[in-house]
Amino acid sequence: MITLEEIRNILGTQNPEQVERLAREAQKITQHYFGRAISLYAPVYISNYCSSHCTYCGFHVRNRINRIKLTREEMHKEMSHVAQSGIENILILTGESYKATPLSYLKEAVEIAKQYFSSISLEVHPMEEAEYRELFKIGVDGIAIYQETYHRQRYAQVHLSGKKKDYDYRRSAPERIAQAGIRQISMGILLGLADDVEEDLYELFEHLRWMEKNFPGVEYSLSFPRLRPIKSLGFEPCCVTDLILIKAICLTRICFPRLGINLSTRENAQLRNRALDLGITKISAASKTSVGGYTTENPEELDPQFDIQDERSVDEIVQMLKHRDFDPVFTDWRRIDNESAA
């Protein structure tokens, strides 16, 4: 098990030879366990209503934006558009509003998504085990839940009100998700939110190891999103360099050889291309981070959760992967009736 001091030394080193050794080891392990396969997915935002005040998020309750919640017809329209690009793995997202997006609304969205996609994951507000079980039974394969930061003091400073202010309830969400039968759990930290990236990474690793020990049947993945501006306005500074992000990815691959590692369009095309060899197993493509963003006629009028950096189409991503001898994977699973398996 890696220590906090070892993480500090690795993330802090500027020695090119040490960085190169780290990268070579991560690349070797990735190719051994995953070959050249890269899975593709797309996010679909269905609501930006939120009841929490998180200072770094474009959807927070005090931010004066146009609040939107997709109807059934609008969800069909968005999801059909994404499906036509070839994407079969979808991540449904909302703001954190228990009132605007209750369990019944999420279940409705999943039932619609099942008509278009082979695999469905959610990134929504934390829930109780029984609620996660209901989502599992109707076909949800995965849940993404990020602690954002494991620094309690910093967590309190940036989560000012609402349910998300409850650190412990959020931290225990992966356990409730696993107990409910969900097969895939994505965890992570928001890089740049806390000053001590090394401590955040260490605590994330410890949390993941605890989950693996207690729920070994779950497929886990990690994400390391960096803070990004919203419509060019920075809600919080991000002091995490490209090199630190790359080293965090390499270190994660070495510590967790079989773990999935995701990389979103928060990062630019050049960095995403470079990171593919070093541990990444899944990337998003042609993402829109605003509600209704795929089919709107006036995208400039929408309010994104954050600005994306890589605007390449699905076809462009696929061609890049093939050119670099990667195997773009749209689906490597078959749908299972979760209700009968529960």
List keywords for this structure.
342 residues; alpha/beta; TIM Barrel; 11 strands; 39% helix
Describe this structure in words.
With about 350 residues, the chain is an alpha/beta fold. It has a single domain, classed as Aldolase class I (TIM Barrel). Helix content is about 40%, strand content about 15%. The chain contains 13 helices and 11 strands. Strands 1-3-4-5-7-8-9-10 form an 8-stranded parallel barrel, surrounded by 5 helices. A two-stranded antiparallel ribbon has the order 2-6. The chain is globular, with a radius of gyration of 19 Å. It starts with a helix and ends with a helix.
Strand content: 5-15%
Q: What distance separates the N and C termini?
A: 34 Å
**Main sheet: which strands, in order across?**
1-3-4-5-7-8-9-10
CATH topology label: TIM Barrel
Unreliable runs? none
- The CATH superfamily title: Aldolase class I
Which secondary structure elements does this structure contain, and how are they paired or packed?
Blueprint: H1 4-12, H2 16-34, E1 37-47, E2 53-54, H3 72-84, E3 89-94, H4 103-113, E4 119-123, H5 129-138, E5 142-144, H6 152-158, E6 159-161, H7 167-171, H8 173-179, E7 184-188, H9 197-214, E8 219-223, H10 242-255, E9 260-263, H11 269-275, E10 282-284, H12 314-323, E11 327-329, H13 338-341
